[in-house]
Each structure stands twice: as structure tokens, then as C-alpha cells.
Amino acid sequence: MASKFTKKHAALAGAAALALAPVFALSYTNLAATEYQSADANAPERFIPLPELDRSGYDARLRALAHLKPLVLSSTTPQELASADVAASASSSTSLKQASSTKAASTTPHLWPVSTVYPDAGAILPFKRIVAYYGNFYSKGMGVLGEYPSEQVLAMLASTTAKWAAADPTTPVLPAIQYIAVVAQGSAGKEGKYILRMPDDQIDKALGMAEQVHGILILDVQVGLSTLPHELPMLEKYLAMPNVELAIDPEFSMKYGNPPGTVIGTFDASDINYAAQYLAGIVRDNHLPPKVLVVHRFTEDMVTNYKKIQPLPEVQIVMDMDGWGSQAKKKNTYARVIAAEPVQFTGIKLFYKADLKAPSTGMLTTSEVLSLTPAPIYVQYQ
Predict the structure, then answer these.
(1) Positions of E strands within 287-360
(2) Nearest to 210 by CA among 185, 231, 236, 238
(3) Bridge partners of residue 139, in order along the sequence
(4) What is each CA distance from 77 to 62, 110, 112, in whole angstroms?
(5) Model confidence over 258-279: pLDDT tens digits?
(6) Closest CA to 266 of 223, 237, 231, 308
(7) Phi and psi at residue 327, in whole multiples of 5°?
(8) Residue 205 in contact with residue 180, Cβ under 8 Å?
(9) How far is the C-alpha of 317 from the C-alpha of 272, rounded, in Å?
(10) Are 144 and 382 in contact (CB under 8 A)?
(11) pTM
(12) What share of the chain is helix, strand, coil (3-state, %, to 5)?
């Protein structure tokens, strides 16, 4: 897939106002309170039990995303169920079979759903599908957030989420504003890191837009010649909010000193695990529901040692197919890079303009996206 780097990255500039917009909290779990009598005083005290994850619902939704039949407690033998799964997997994984024959995993049934750790209660995925609008307010060329006025963006997002709700009525849609908070640049800047960090007033604006649609904010980070350990702590006051998630972009992680845009960058599993562990610490310290960590990818080399990536009870990891092209090219890349190297959840990015370039005849439709194996639980529009 083609690189997304444009001259717009180098043109970003702006001054920061330090005022923080009002913050809202989303409730992901209903806690039922009960009462008990204190041994020391004849007065009722409030006891709030810890919520529990609906594991059967979680498992059922993962099987549905993989286009497998629901598990049914009946006289069906394990052998019969396995045979049915293989048949279902074979009939629903056309895109996997179109991938490179050198990747044996791409046609192997039961890659999905992934067997990994259960999330803590309050997890967004797979109970809701995230539909995100992406960009930066300073640039019209980096996505819809900068291309249109905020009111128009929110109207477009409402229309798009309605389409997804209609396409998959069994999965509620959670709208998201995905704002590039650390932007890769074509010039080194004062620190020599080839990045520009967005001021608080711009992040607050994105947070306010998420509030208006009762959604979440996803902060996108392009580290350039910097590192995740250096950049993420600068965003901690936002990441400590219950409605703010994180995305990291290997394309602009320039480990070998190249300026962003000259070569495609990379993250190793150790980088992704660092981000997950950092978020997990924030979740534990602030008693938050699990965070979502999105990792963009459109080539194998953008993420190395994927088998060592470790989802955590506090952090849900989405591998997002982030690249533009024709319908056939996007399906092939999804099968070869995302579906064939399973981590936990999957996503796909749709480009309003780049996906229309010849030989493409249009963007992937909701039904075409849902037919992918596994069906993406995160969809981003640029």
C-alpha cells in the first residue's frame, strides 16, 4: 500500500492555549449496589461488587466475527463441531485464500478467533464496533477532521455510524474522533525528532467533539525519530480519562534515522508491548475500564515479531489495515498482513479520496468489510 506521508505534515504549525475543556465520563458498565450491616454500628453501609465480564457473550461475538457457528450445548460431538467450523471458515474466508500462497497461515482455519487473555469488565470490544473519523485540524490533506468544519464532520460521522448500525444490527456502534496528537514532519525541528506535538487546545477541541456524539477520543501518535517512552507520558493526562484511547503508527517510527516519508517505518512487538503496559498502568492507577490500543499496519515489515505481542486484561489491541488502494488490493493486504498474523482484534481504514484512485471503482462497502475474515471491529475513515 502507498505511504500516507504528504507535504501537509511539514506545513503543520500552531500555538497552544493551555485551557483544558470540560471532561466527560462514559459509563461502560452498570454496577449494582447492595447493602450489608456493619458489625460496629447498626447502620447500613454500601457495598459495590466488582463487575464481571460476560465471557459467554464475549466468546460468541468473537466467533461471529470469525464467521463461525455459535457454540451450542447439545449432543453435537466436538468432532462434528470442528468439522462445521472448518466448513464455515472455508466458505467465509475468500479473501484469505487470495493472499500469498507463501503464507500457509492465510488459508488455515481456526486462526480466528484468537485464543488470548480475557479483558476486564467494561471492555468496549467486541461488544461495540468503533467507527472513527481521523485527521488533524491544521491540515486538510490528512483526513476529514481537518478538511471540513467540525459541525459537518459530526454530521457525516452520525450518518456513517447509522449505516454501520444498519449493516450489523447485532453490534452497537461507538463513534470516535481519532486525532493525530503527535505528527511526523519533514523537517527536524528544534529537538531533531521530526515531529510536531499538538497543543492542548487542539486536543481539547477533539475531546469536545467526541463528547458531542457520546463517543471516544483516540489519540494518534507518529513518533518520527522520537520514541513511545518519550512521547506517551506527555499525553498521560488525557490517556487517564475513561473515554480516551491510543493509536500508534509504525509507518512514521523511524528507527534507523531516516526522515519520515522517505521510507516506511517499523515497530517491534516490544514497542507495542511497551504501549500496552503503559496503558495498563494508567488503567490500574485510575480504576478505568480497559483501554483500546490501535496499531496501524499495511506491510509485514511495519510490525516485527507479532507473535510476541501480548494483549492484557486492561488493554485490547487492534491491528488496523491502514493503507489505500483498489478494493481487491485492500482485501488482499488485509488477508496477508492482518488476518494471517493474528493478535487480538482487527480494523480497517477507508479513504474517502485515495481509495477512489484508478483502478479502484469505489470504497469498500459495509457489507464487503463485514464479509472479511475476521470482520473488523474497528473501522476508520480518513
Answers:
(1) 291-297, 303-304, 315-321, 345-350
(2) 238
(3) 136
(4) 21, 17, 21
(5) 999 999 999 999 999 999 999 9
(6) 223
(7) -60, -45
(8) no
(9) 9
(10) yes
(11) 0.81
(12) 35, 20, 45
CA distance 63 to 60: 5
Q: 233-266 pLDDT, tens per residue?
A: 999 999 999 999 999 999 999 999 999 999 999 9
Long-range CB contacts (within 8 A, 24+) of 208-214: 208/21, 208/22, 209/150, 209/153, 209/154, 209/177, 210/175, 210/176, 210/177, 210/243, 211/22, 211/24, 211/243, 212/154, 213/154, 213/157, 213/158, 213/175, 213/177, 214/26, 214/175
Strand pairing partners for 380? 132, 349
Domain architecture of the chain: domains with CATH = 116-381 (3.20.20)
- Grid coordinates given for 146: 481537518
Cell of 70: 455459535
Closest residue by Cα to residue 174 from 237, 245, 234:
245
Task: Give the residues across from 304 on adjacent strands.
Answer: 268
349, 321 contact by CB (below 8 A): yes
Look at the block and give the residue holding cell 492465510.
106
What is the dihedral angle through the alpha carbons of 269, 275, 277, 281, rounded to the nearest 10 degrees? 180
Q: How does DSSP assign 5-38, residue by residue?
A: --THHHH-------PPPP------SPPPPEEEE-
SS3 195: strand
- Helix then strand count (H, E) for the chain reads 12, 13
Give, to the nearest 10 degrees, the angle between helix 150-167 and helix 200-212: 40
Nearest CA to 242 out of 210, 273, 271, 212 is that of 210
